[in-house]
Amino acid sequence: MCEYDVVVIGGGHAGCEASAASARAGARTVLVTQKIDTIGEMSCNPSFGGIGKGVLVREVDAMDGLCGRIADLGGVQFRILNRSKGPAVHGPRAQVDRVIYKRHMLQTLESYPGLDLRAGSVADILLERPTDLDERSLKRLASQDSASAVAAATVTGVRLESGEIIRARKVVITTGTFLGGEIHIGLKAFPSGRKGEAASTGLSKSLKDAGFRLGRMKTGTPPRLAGSTIDFSRMPKQLGDMPVTPFSFVHDSVPYANDQVACYQTHTTPAVHKVIEANFDQSIHIRETVRGPRYCPSLESKIKRFSEKDSHVIWLEPEGLPEHTDVVYPNGISNTMPEDIQLKFLRLIPGLENVTMTQPGYGVEYDHIDPRELKRTLETKRVTGLYMAGQINGTTGYEEAAAQGILAGANAGLAAGHDKAPDRAGETPQLVLDRSDGYLGVLIDDLITRGVEEPYRVFTARSEYRLSSRADNADIRLTRRAAALGLIRDTSRLARLDAVEADMAQAQALLSQVVYLPHEWEAKLGGDRRVGRNGARTSALDMIQKGFLAEDMSADSRQPENIAPELMPKARKCTGGPRISDIVPGWADVPLNIRRRVATEAMYHGYLRQQQLEANTFKREESLRLPVDIDYSQIRVLSREEVDRLSRVRPDTLGAARRIGGITPGGMLALLKHVRRAADA
Fold first, then answer.
1. What are phi and psi of 240, to 5 degrees?
2. What per-residue confidence (pLDDT) applies to 554?
3. CA distance 608 to 610
4. Which of 26, 175, 481, 528 could anchor a disulfide with 179, C-beta 3.0 to 4.6 Å?
5. How many CB atoms lie within 10 A of CB 135?
6. What is the rounded CA–CA span in Å between residue 335 and residue 346?
7. Which residues is 298 bridged to in the sheet?
8. Residue 160's beta-bridge partner residues?
9. With bands split at pLDDT 50, 70 and 90, how would you rate the model's confidence at 561?
10. Which sign does the torsion angle of CA 430, 434, 436, 440 carry?
11. For residue range 354-412, what is the model confidence (pLDDT) as tens digits?
12. In angstroms, rounded to a whole number, what is the distance separating the alpha carbons of residues 646 and 415?
């Protein structure tokens, strides 16, 4: 038997971030996974980021997480999605070489101070239950409604399938699709969490025995193709951005900036759809009793749901550098058809007439818990010291998993450190983020207040604070906050952040120093009469705020002839009139990333000020804590439905209660009065 402060179960993206964050928090941590050499495996798509998701990667990086830095090291194509729209919805994304990413992640964790790696499968979670409760009371606690659960046990460690026991103060479960995993190909089904790897079945039983109610979700992955058998000459080409925008705030560039690979676009055809439709009965995965991802649906689901469409876009994405792999990932055709049917429809796709399939697509069903079981720290309400992160909480995607991992791991490590402190003075330090803090706060809040009915993914529309929760300012929002909790091991981050803020202040001062009268601005803006004639002198900074000047947000510095004409980026240039550099002396000498950050802050100035007022109101509501054991049935004004909803979720703040849905303004007022009376009593 061995002892650790924290045990992390699972070596996927959530597990990697959780174990590293726990170690950074000062906890002696062990990561237990079935196979050490699969740590950091990119199970599905060979990419990180995207719209909404890219902001999550930046937020993880701002707190000294791993995935952004390592994606930069293995990135083979970088793009900012949504360039044609405002910076608030820009989505950093990178194609990543699977071999390089996995190698760097494993090397990082193997040498990470305070972290050990262990190969093994966890069969059981060890719990300590109150000794003063009889058997009937224990059964009642274990069977209570999931979301209203009150801790009936404390975790003390895990038991491996080998029989070995690892004692721990805290345990973080990050099992991904392995928890009760079952792979589907056509009508074949077999236990597995990923092709060629065993599912975790003992852990599912252990969670059920502890009282957790498990649901089922599904996801899928497309077939893999041999690039040498694809006719790319018939397809539009998509190149990466130049200059490259790295994920990590500690990187100024990336190793393969000048060697980026191209992606290619093709599409399905009516003939493909006919083959799929004729074989719907050959797949057990497309049944509707188990929910799949709405925003990344299988090809079968798209053909069923959008029967009026005769074509769906497919992106052919290399899985790495040519010297590492010839495999191509066809993004957009995840499916679970029998292998012969997959090859048949693949060869009906333009450019794939002679393609070789190196691995068939398949679907995975897996267990998940109701995330309303969780606190904001991602500790479970039912078992003290047990944390969960990733797909076990009903989410989908590398980025969502990594973000939950860093939060759960950090809180497990902080709590373990507090528990073993001699005096245990004060409250346990916690990393808790709300909706106004960033997309990670939105993700956690959505999970614990609303639960999930389908695999949850982040996108920009979920955040009401997206103007202030941008990809470019995650460091300003989160780095010092993480540092205050001791979660920043890379001390260069704080120095770089100080330098960035100083550079931004200088750039703002430069803009403020350029001042003209209205008629002078009108002349410089080519006779734009909207400037007005009020006689007041106005700075260049003010003119950006008013929308008369803008920074060039275009993506590509290459000559147009080097970019495929079919995919010329619709990059937003200056919004009419000259660029800032045409007006402000010395502006062109300011680093590009600083220019863009300052211009973005100025452009959104009025909106950000209003959003800050809204965020302040929101935080006041979030500061009003609700007792976990409140008896909502005693608040007479509440309707039976409101009592039921509040009792089921048991929100921890007044703001969280408001977001449950179905709670009337009158109900909220009654709840507020009840809490204040209780506080005064």
1. -80, 170
2. 65
3. 5
4. 175
5. 7
6. 11
7. none
8. 122
9. very low
10. positive
11. 999 999 999 999 999 999 999 999 999 999 999 999 999 999 999 999 999 999 999 99
12. 27
What share of the chain has pLDDT > 90, as a percent?
Answer: 68
Beta carbons within 10 angstroms of residue 233's beta carbon: 8
Distances from the Cα of 84 to the Cα of 80, 555, 593, angstroms: 10, 9, 18
DSSP 157: E
Residue 131 CB contacts under 8 Å (≥ 6 apart), including other chains: none
Distance CA 173, CA 380 (A): 11
pLDDT band at 670 (very low <50, low <70, confident <90, very high): confident
Q: Can you name the residues that pair with 331 across neighbouring β-strands?
A: 315
Task: State how far Cα 248 lies from the chain centre.
Answer: 15
In which band, very low, low, confident or very high, does the pLDDT at 575 lie, cut at 50, 70 and 90? Answer: very low
Tokens matching residue 154: 């404390």
Whether residue 455 has a cis bond before it, omega within 30° of 0:
no
Which tokens go with 393? 């909480």
E strand map for 301-392? 313-318, 327-331, 357-359, 362-369, 383-384, 386-388
DSSP strand pairing (313-318 vs 214-221)? unpaired
Q: What is the pLDDT of residue 422?
A: 66
Alpha carbon distance 634, 420 (integer Å)? 39
Which of 497, 496, 512, 588 is closest to 544 using CA atoms?
512
Residues 6+ apart with CB under 8 A from 217: 290, 291, 292, 365, 366, 368, 391, 394, 452, 454, 455
Both tokens of 458, joined, read 């982040």
Q: How many CB atoms sit inside 10 A of residue 380's CB? A: 27
CA angle 501, 504, 510 (to 5 degrees): 145
Which of 244, 217, 251 lies closest to 70 in space, CA to CA? 251
Concatenating the DSSP letter of every residue in 238-277 gives EPPPBS---SSTT-SS-TTTTSPPPEEEEE--HHHHHHHH
Give the pair of three-digit tokens for residue 329.
């990932």
CA-to-CA distance for 305 and 351, rounded, in angstroms? 26
Handedness of CA 141, 147, 153, 156 (dihedral sign): positive
Tokens standing for residue 153: 């046990």
145 token code pair = 């409604």
**pLDDT digits over 55-79, tens only?**
999 999 999 999 999 999 999 999 9
Question: Would you state the structure tokens that stand for residue 304, as one six-digit string?
Answer: 């069923």
Angstrom distance (rounded) from CA 396 to CA 447: 12
Q: What is the DSSP letter of 429?
A: P
Three-class SS of 455-504: CECCCHHHCCCCCCCCHHHHHHHHHHHHHHCCCCCCCHHHHHHHHHHHHH
List the beta bridge partners of residue 2: 166
Task: Pick the more confident residue, 447 or 294.
Answer: 447
Query: In this predicted structure, what is the pLDDT of residue 292?
Result: 58
CA dihedral sign, ordered 631, 632, 637, 640: negative
Q: Please give the biggest Cα pair distance in the chain.
A: 85
How much is the pLDDT for 290? 63
Task: Find the distance separating the first CA and the last CA of the chain, reported in whole Å.
Answer: 49
Q: How far apart are CA 129 and CA 176, in angstroms?
A: 27
| Residue 447: pLDDT band with limits 50, 70, 90 | very high
Q: Which pair of structure tokens corresponds to residue 534?
A: 């009020």
- Strand 29-33 relative to strand 115-119, pairing: parallel
Phi, psi (5° rounding) for residue 287? -60, 150
In degrees, rounded to 5, the angle at the alpha carbon of residue 611 between the alpha carbons of residues 605 and 613 is: 110
Q: How far apart are CA 292 and CA 298, in angstroms?
A: 8
Q: Helices in 533-626 by DSSP H: which ranges? A: 540-545, 580-583, 592-603, 605-622
Per the CB < 8 A criterion, the answer to whether 58 and 474 are in contact is yes
**Cα 274 from Cα 518, distance rounded (Å):** 65
Q: Are strands 165-173 and 386-388 parallel, antiparallel or unpaired?
A: parallel
